[in-house]
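Contributing new records

If you add data, match the layout below exactly. Sequence lines come first and carry their own label; structure lines follow with theirs. Keep one chain per record. Anything else will be rejected by the validation script.
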Amino acid sequence: MTPVIDGLQYANWSPKIFQEMRAGGVDAVHVTISYHEDFRETVANIQKWNQFFEEHPDLIFQGFTADDIALAQRTGRTAIIFGSQNPSCIEDDIGLVEVLYRLGLRFMQLTYNNQSLLATGCYEDADTGLTRMGREVVAEMNRVGLVVDMSHSAERSTLDAIEHSTRSIAITHANPAAWHPAKRNKSDTVLRALSETGGMLGFSIYPHHLKDGSDCRLAGFCEMIARTAETYGIAHLGIGTDLCQDQPDSVVDWMRMGTWTKSVDYGEGSATQRGFPQMPDWFAGNLDFANIQAGLEGVGFSRAEVAALMGGNWLRFFQNSFGAQAQAAKKAAE
């Protein structure tokens, strides 16, 4: 049976949400374990997850390889796959890429909105592309099997990453800018380069990324996916909800402001909006993945195409992306 996989969540994790994942039939989720944290703080977040895994072994476990998705399905649990939305977790030390990979990190964004040591974020005025360290870190990520994620990166930096990376990259949570011109959504140039190199796009349900925001209708969202599939092909498309379920509004200020500013950064919201926007009524949390599936069927996708979009494409990407490059090459040769 084809799995249901979410390409990105940052929820206020609790037994309630783990139970909803199971009730919603979610087999794997890429979860954010780091935004602005340094290495030691990221390790502390991993320790918190280890406690979750110990306390709720009937609901969740840590996923390390694509094979863990099948294990999740066989055992009726959800595989939790770690990712970071910023390279702050490696500080200025390329050696920490492999250390974090060994601890289970499988995705890392090269930027989170701002300029980093590696690349330029989508909120900067000038995009200088990958830095010297950025090129070195991408090569190291390729070597160990840590996926390059450019969800919050600016255009030139994203194109540089696609060109420089020897393995397909991901944009785990964004939508086409032609549908809704949010700063975080991606241009045709980026999406075409991504699809031509086997990269993955996870469609976001975060309201700032949606046409009509919180009022976006399910049919409109699914029509957008259909048009994207017509343009770039369906094989490298999935869902990356960017769900922040049960988070208090104070968390979004921390996400935007981090430790780099003392003033309020309103990010992708309006000039006065603070806190999280209301999710659309058809997707409030992990219980609602069936609504997306029904919506995709409603705009004309076949059963096999819906299965690919809901998780099959992510599974194939995991199979090709997780693991050392030498091992991947050996497997491909076989």
